[in-house]
Amino acid sequence: FIVKYLKDQGVTKLDYVIGTHTHEDHIGSLDVVIDTFEIGKVFMPKVTHTTKTFEDVLLAIQNKSLKINSPEPGSVFVLGDAEFTILAPNSKSYKDLNNYSLVIKLVHGKNSFLFTGDAEDVSEKEILEAGWDVVSDVLKVGHHGSSSSTTSVFLNEVNPTYAVISLGEGNDYGHPHKETLAKLTKKGVKIFRTDQQGTIIASSDGQTLKFETTLDDK
User: Fold this and answer.
1) For the CA atoms of the chain, what is the radius of gyration?
2) Disulfide-capable partner of 179 in 55, 81, 134, 147 (CB 3.0 to 4.6 Å)?
3) pLDDT surpasses 60 at 212
4) pLDDT > 70: percent of the chain
5) What 3-state DSSP class applies to 170?
6) Which residues, in sequence order, are bridge partners of residue 84?
7) pLDDT given at position 13
8) Cut 0.85: pTM above it
């Protein structure tokens, strides 16, 4: 599904492939993507996992003679007219794999996006304590809208206009949690949800943002 989608967009090379952390719902099919396309750099945090999914990704990277990069917070990378900065993880070890998530702020002209993976309150606190600039127009809400992420203080600092929540319809975790939705709604943030709107595409020309979805709101 992912490979077909990328090919339909005319993608032949991925400058950066980012496995936010080792959980299967974030790196599942990443091996097939690496096998299929020309790959520039691969970013993943310094943490391993015992799943076959993780092993398959490592094998795909090895087979293409690529290496895993684990950039330090504050590292900046150029992507066309845009650039992105690594904001997390800020510690070497965590009790929960989610907090190893690579957190990235992408800036394109006047537009900005914050991609948080599954980073939870622990990582959010570290990001703020480190003084990283998190203010963004679009927030990819952490951990599928779980109440373990998107603390009020973090949300207030990001101060997004739009929020995108990636989740499966009728998932076993009850995502998105009502506490997170309430915080976003109270701030007047426009919420997009993959369970209700399908694929969500945010386009930036450096001046304005445009959103497209594949399903109508339910």
Assistant:
1) 17
2) 147
3) yes
4) 94
5) coil
6) 77, 106
7) 96
8) yes
Which tokens in the block code for residue 164? 């995108």
Residues in the chain, overall count: 218
21 burial type by CB count under 10 A (0-12 exposed, 13-18 middle, 19+ buried): buried
Phi, psi of 128 (to 5 degrees): -70, -40
- The structure tokens 């684990």 sit at 70
Contact predicate 105/136, CB 8 Å:
yes
CB 180 within 8 A of CB 151: no
Task: Using the predicted structure, report yes or no on whether residue 218 has a pLDDT greater than 70.
Answer: no
Indicate whether 145 pLDDT > 90.
Answer: no
Distances (CA, A) of 17 to 20, 25, 39: 9, 15, 7
Higher local confidence (pLDDT), 165 or 28: 165
Provide the pairing of β-strand 38-43 with 13-18. parallel
Structure tokens at 85: 């900065």
d(CA 49, CA 206): 38
Instruction: List, in sequence order, the alpha helices (H) in 29-76.
Output: 30-36, 52-63
Q: Return the amino acid letter for 132.
A: W
Cα–Cα distance measured from residue 139 to residue 135, given in angstroms and rounded to the nearest whole number: 9
